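Troubleshooting: if your tokenizer reports a length mismatch, compare against these two reference records.
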Amino acid sequence: MIQINIGDHRPIDPRWQPMPRAERAVLDWARHRARWIARNLSSADAYFKRLPFQKTLTALVADSSLWLSYEDNPGRYGATSIRNFRDIVISSHAFDKGRWVVLATLIHELAHVGGAPGFNDSAEQAVLACGLGRRDELIRGRDDPKTPYEPGIFGMSLKPDRETAVV
């Protein structure tokens, strides 16, 4: 299963930190819920399989070479290293919004690990394929605040160092 950095991993981005003890239970819930989604919603694996690296959500949540770290950043939900596609960070902003947003952020970042590009909304559509939003949010482009899916998120932008996908 995806690993949580508790101080036993050095992330590729030196600004990323071990997961604070206070956030670990929420992140652990999100990992297990992502695994439940992969087992129970065929649309999730089907969507991930269509991404460029053709890995299913089932395979990604089981991949112990993937690491989840933390950053205190109120300006974004999370990010994925595009240098190694192994390091994911979940930001304080996601934790502040609650466990369902942490789960949606994890799914979104796993879509980048699966090859979802950042110049369109394919990573955020993975959240929709995992049952965390309503189709009419996509069609109308209007966010329902009762779901963690956000139709206005376009996956990533590149930081000046061009090594990290930013959400």
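Reference record two:
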Amino acid sequence: MIVLMHKLRTVTLTNGNIKDLEADCEQLNIRGFVSFHQEVRVKKISTHGHSSFHSRIEAQMLNSSGSCTIKDFCKINEIKNAGSLNMHNGQVTKLNSSGKLTIEQGLEAETLDAIGIVKAPEILAKLFHLKLSGESKIRELIADEICIEKDKISVLPLLKKKLICHCIKGKNIRLSYTNADVVEGDVVTVGSNCRVKTLYYTDSYSIAPNAKVQQIVRREKE
């Protein structure tokens, strides 16, 4: 049996302001300080330097281990971030982050799995899992499955590992080291070192001995 491997047409850039990327480019490698001032549509982006995108991005894969800034809308199937990724807004199927992830406006994702720090006004997902290594801030977090826990590897004091939210909504929610004004879910577990003002639930809830919840409200299922 003979398997023919298709080699992507690749462009590697090390510096400059790019306005005329090759139209047939399928893979984009960035190894230095590069700024893009045009729409980028490729299969794969690999950035290990300092990259900034000032227009729309569409890609199947983005691998970032440096500093990457996306200032316009992006539609990407899979993102792997091991550095600092700053996004304006976008749609992602799968996002894995082990560094710092900053969303300026909002993000929609099927799965978001992060170890480190996440900051965003709004995140919509089906599955959201965050292991805290510092202070994360998400104003509104909405997902079917939500799990917040502390990263055991980080050397930061435990008190600095926390998530601050205005509103958390989901079906199955498991929280620890989280401060939230509103938590609303079907099954809610308020774990250690949480501070919640109002907890809304439909099926069941539990509260750890060292967690504080000011108000608990049961809601009927729609």
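Descriptive notes for reference record two:
- Residues 78 and 94 are 5 Å apart (CA to CA).
- The mean pLDDT is 92.
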